[in-house]
Design brief:
6 helices
Amino acid sequence: MKRISAERKEAVIKKMLPPLSMSVNELMEIEGISRTTLYDWKASLFSDGEEMPNLERDAPHYLSAEAKLSVVIETIAMNETELSQYCRERGLYPQEIKGWKQACLDAQKFKLKQEREESAQAKADKQRIRELERELNRKEKALAETAALLVLRKKLSALWEDEVGED
């Protein structure tokens, strides 16, 4: 297995990006580097969470969530013509970007729904705690009253035994 210098690796990766946008198969034939190595290098471009690089058509499944969000943010204010141009330059499809945007919106809606549910659950928990505290206080008072009655009964029994013993 031969080692490939960092300079050569960088040069090959640049060929994958626009304006050349060469496919992995083309680079494999030209450079004599295995397909898996090229795909690994290509995947490493996106694993760092860097800004959206310019890619060929088969790249979107390699994109990290951060890169997809970056694309959505970059294209949010674009009209259809600008979006189409942007997609052609980067080898993407407008439908992919719209899907990513929808996924972002769905995730935000889910988060808001989850926060509301957690808030409602917390409110219900607080109510239940208040009810339990009231019940506990009532039972503590009843227990204290019962204990006081038992003490009085003992004193009364002791008093009556003393009176019976004196007669």
